[in-house]
Amino acid sequence: MGVPIAVTIAGSDSGGAAGIQADLKTFSALGVYGGVVLTALTAQNTKGVFAIHDVPPDFIAAQIDAVFTDLDVGAVKIGMVSTAVAIDVVIAALDRYHPRNVVLDPVMVASSGDQLLQSHALGRLRELIGRVDVVTPNLLEAATLLDTLPARDEDEMRAQAERLLDLRPGAVLLKGGHGGGPDSVDLLVEAGSCIRLAAPRVVTRNTHGTGCTFASAIAAGLAKGLSLEQAAREAKAYISGAIAGADKLGIGGGRGPLHHFHAWW
């Protein structure tokens, strides 16, 4: 049996903090081989996103075919798919290959506040959610998907996560990092169950790529054969350590990257 393999379908961050760069670092840190399907290139650093070049849909499809017809893919992490046509290509590929353990980080806005999802693509993103095993929105993304206000407490988080289940993902992991309080609390919600994942909140501005990293860590765990709950718990521990170590890196003048290799460097 070879090394577990996960594939990221996402955009590139030229600053190295988010997107496929964060995904591959996370896979490597957690002992998983990473394949890549590039959906967009961004001219980006810790201070903002300055330009986006969308990869043509036929080339996205070609990358998917190349990867899935050769690699034994144990999990898929989907991140930035900024256009409706790109989302349609991904949906068609999921229907064609039926990969195991699909994790969707519904990327809409960068840490800098720059828009990464075209407004007309939101409906297609909701359609994509119905094809995945777990979707990992933050509070703002969940509110946008549901056309409501962000949850203010854990009761509202659970209610919104349960509403997101109506879009037919296997599970919802609603992230509470944008909330308040001494702990950062995430809720893993499936039909009839809710698991609370909590860790002390770390005060730092260096959180660029947090959503990408968390989703990739879950995908890595699933690729290694963990249950969703185990993968989510291990991902929570990993992301907490990566955030806690972020200030040691001192990279860039804005929102810096996490320390993906905090346990080794």
Give descriptors for this structure.
single chain; 265 residues; alpha/beta; UDP-N-acetylmuramoyl-L-alanine:D-glutamate ligase; 6-stranded mixed sheet; 3-stranded antiparallel sheet; 9 strands; 22% strand
Kindly describe this structure.
- The protein has 265 residues and is α/β, with parallel strands linked by helices.
- The chain has a single domain, classed as UDP-N-acetylmuramoyl-L-alanine:D-glutamate ligase.
- The chain has eight helices and nine strands.
- The chain has helices at 19-29, 57-68, 84-97, 122-129, 139-146, 154-164, 210-223, 228-244, and strands at 5-13, 33-45, 48-54, 75-78, 102-104, 134-135, 172-174, 183-190, 193-200.
- A six-stranded mixed sheet has the order 3-2-1-4-5-6. A three-stranded antiparallel sheet has the order 7-8-9, sandwiched between helices.
- It is globular and about 45 Å long.
- The model has no long low-confidence stretch (mean pLDDT 93).
State the distance separating the first and last CA atoms. Answer: 29 Å
The arrangement of helices and strands along the chain is EHEEHEHEHEHHEEEHH
Q: So, CATH architecture?
A: 3-Layer(aba) Sandwich
Strand order of the largest sheet: 3-2-1-4-5-6
CATH topology-level fold name: UDP-N-acetylmuramoyl-L-alanine:D-glutamate ligase
Oligomeric status of the shown chains? Answer: single chain
Mean residue pLDDT: 93
- Strand percentage: 15-25%
Question: Rough shape?
Answer: globular
Please identify the top-level CATH class.
Alpha Beta
- What would CATH call the homologous superfamily? Ribokinase
> Any idea what the radius of gyration is?
17 Å
Find the structural class using helix and strand composition: alpha/beta
How much helix, percentage-wise, in residues?
A: 25-40%
Low-confidence stretches: none
Q: Please summarize the sheet with the most strands.
A: 6 strands, mixed
So how many helices?
A: 8
Number of domains: 1
E-strand count: 9
